[in-house]
Amino acid sequence: MRKVLALAAAASLAGCATMPAPSRSARPAVVPGAMQFLYGSAEAAALSEQAYNALVDNVRLRIAGPRPSESAIVLPADGAPVAASCGDKPFAAVFDMDETAILNLGYEYNDAASGAAFDAGRWARWEAGGADKVVAVPGATAAFAALRTMGVTPIINTNRNVAAATETADALARAGLGSFVHGETLFLKGDADGKSAKDGRRRAIAARWCVLALGGDQIGDFSDALEGTPAARRVAASSPPYAARWGRSWFILPNPVYGTGLGSGWDDTFPADKRWTDMQGAK
Amino acid sequence: MRKVLALAAAASLAGCATMPAPSRSARPAVVPGAMQFLYGSAEAAALSEQAYNALVDNVRLRIAGPRPSESAIVLPADGAPVAASCGDKPFAAVFDMDETAILNLGYEYNDAASGAAFDAGRWARWEAGGADKVVAVPGATAAFAALRTMGVTPIINTNRNVAAATETADALARAGLGSFVHGETLFLKGDADGKSAKDGRRRAIAARWCVLALGGDQIGDFSDALEGTPAARRVAASSPPYAARWGRSWFILPNPVYGTGLGSGWDDTFPADKRWTDMQGAK
After folding, report:
1. Is A83 exposed, middle or buried (0-12, 13-18, 19+ CB in 10 A)?
2. A78 and chain B in contact, CB less than 8 A
3. What is the 3-state secondary structure (H, E, C) of B212-236?
4. Torsions phi, psi of A90, nearest 5?
5. Residue A36 predicted with pLDDT over 50
6. Smallest CA–CA distance from B247 into chain A, residue
7. Does the CB of A97 have a partner CB in chain B at under 8 Å?
8. Under CATH, what is the fold of the domain A32-256?
9. Where residue A235 falls among pLDDT bands split at 50, 70, 90?
10. Across the interface, do A237 and B6 touch by the CB < 8 Å criterion?
């Protein structure tokens, strides 16, 4: 295993050393490590199957028991966030789209191969033209089908743009995830309250649906309340009231490639009292 | 969210551009992206809490029902691998150690800060001297305690070296994971059959225990049978008979930093028919 580490480390350094590439013609020698993991590994596929298996099993258990009263959606209130109520609303499960329901293989290939910096125009062109270059996240198609069979409606809450609503629904359908309708089962950036933060859309969805599960790859796909430094957000995710939700009503997919899972500095990542010095090292 | 992507991408490129550093005194500007994610993010903490919550919930359900007949350990046989039998053996759950039960913060800090290539001697010094520089994986201490309360014994099956058996048990105890005894509840590299592959040790454990769950960060922590190219291993992890095990009897922890989750090439990672070209790109 440690041998594999050495090879992997060497590979990712080699990848780093040659990127960013000045043009598409000079593709780096190796795929960036985080993309090797998310898009190329059995381990990331297993993490995804695990999240979707746990989600379907938990939803099945909840609808087999007494009718749920509490939504998986937790909304800001005076004091602590409060779970929305289910009443007699129809059952739904709410998912982010990118790197949660689908993998953006086409865009990420272009990103890695070109080494180009992020560009909102390029992302918009991808939303408009990439529908045939995505695949479903491992486990997602089977889970969406199982939910529909149980009478639970999958709803997508994404920050893709309203301008590409049709192409976004097309990408989901081509990936085998079924049919989604803007404003009904597909919510895009700015819907409900004009914001990119998702609590406003979650509030609108919770008004019409009894949401039994949330799925996403970013903390913001679950609540806007986990804020602060990376270290503070990490502690909050592992503490009450959030720690007990993971794998029970909130289901997270792996994404080390982009997003709020990146950005921690040395002090956020490695506490001072956990730093080791190799006395015989540094030859 | 895409804005965060841009920042994260810039950050990881900056990190790449300055590593490897020639000496410990020249620490890179930023933490490698995969370490930011695994050791510094709320998202990776949530993935870990999710795996441990799902494991404890599934074990609780299994011991509340009819006595399980099948072990979570699947062993090679003539033809397809076969689940070991439980008989009336005592209940156990088997875990890998590194990046499954504990996070090697001290070692990984040294690795990232020094930029040194992998060196078996440095890793051996870490096993012998790093017991106070590790932390438990988020969710692991609560899960190990819950398992013991249910009468399920946590067992560690790791490729750490027999030479450091005492220090390895010490590291687990200091992380709050409890007491482990070499040969009883702690299995090290080479135990049982002299190999680093773990099926031999799993066979020895299954002979004495009814194993209700396996936990690990590498596919080899579950079975030695998933072999081949990264793409072949990825397909196998998402196909019968393995796909249904994730989140039910096999529980995987995230690790984009090292191991068999890394190493896929361009063709393994990005199928030719899923590569997108930005026609207006490459200015």
Report:
1. middle
2. no
3. EEEEECCHHHCCCCCCCCHHHHHHH
4. -65, 155
5. yes
6. A50
7. no
8. Rossmann fold (3.40.50)
9. very high
10. no
Q: How far is A213 from chain B (nearest CA, A)?
A: 13
Residues of A in contact with B42 (CB under 8 A): 219, 226, 230, 233-234, 236-237, 260-261
A246, A273, A275, best to mutate vs chain B, most B CBs in 10 Å: A246
Q: Is A28 on the interface with B (CB under 8 A)?
A: no
Report the pLDDT averaged over residues B251-275: 97
CB B101 within 8 A of CB B135: no
pLDDT exceeds 90 at position A25: no
**Percent of chain B residues topping a pLDDT of 90:** 85
Residue B205 per-residue DSSP state:
H
Query: What is chain A's mean pLDDT, rounded?
Result: 91
Q: What is the DSSP letter of B211?
A: E
pLDDT at A281: 56
Give the three-state DSSP class for B186: strand
Cα–Cα dist A123/A130, whole Å: 10
Instruction: Say what the pLDDT of residue A117 is.
Output: 86
**Segment holding B114, helix H or strand E:** helix B105-114
Domain ranges in chain A are 32-256
3-state secondary structure of B69: coil
Q: Quick: pLDDT tens for A158-212.
A: 999 999 999 999 999 999 999 999 999 999 999 999 999 999 999 999 999 999 9
Q: B111 or B24: whose pLDDT is higher?
A: B111
Task: For an interface test with B, give the residue of A37, A159, A227, A239 to mutate (most B CBs within 10 A).
Answer: A37
What confidence score (pLDDT) does residue A280 get?
A: 84
Q: What is the pLDDT of residues B128-162, one digit of tens each?
A: 999 999 999 999 999 999 999 999 999 999 999 99
Minimal Cα distance from B128: which residue of A? Answer: A278
Mutation target vs B (from A38, A48, A49, A61; most B CBs, 10 A cutoff): A49
Residues paired with residue A156 on neighbouring β-strands, in sequence order: A95, A186
Tens digits of per-residue pLDDT, B163-180? 999 999 999 999 999 999
Looking at the complex, report in whole angstroms how far the Cα of residue B77 sits from the nearest Cα belonging to chain A: 23
Only one residue has tokens 């190999």, namely B195
Q: How far is CA B131 from CA B106, B141, B170, B180, B183, in A?
A: 9, 16, 6, 14, 20
In whole angstroms, give the CA distance from residue A182 to residue A188. Answer: 8
Q: What angle do CA A146, A198, A60 make, to 5 degrees?
A: 20
pLDDT of residue B117: 86
Mapped onto helix, strand or coil, the DSSP state of residue A226 is: coil
**ipTM greater than cut 0.95:** no
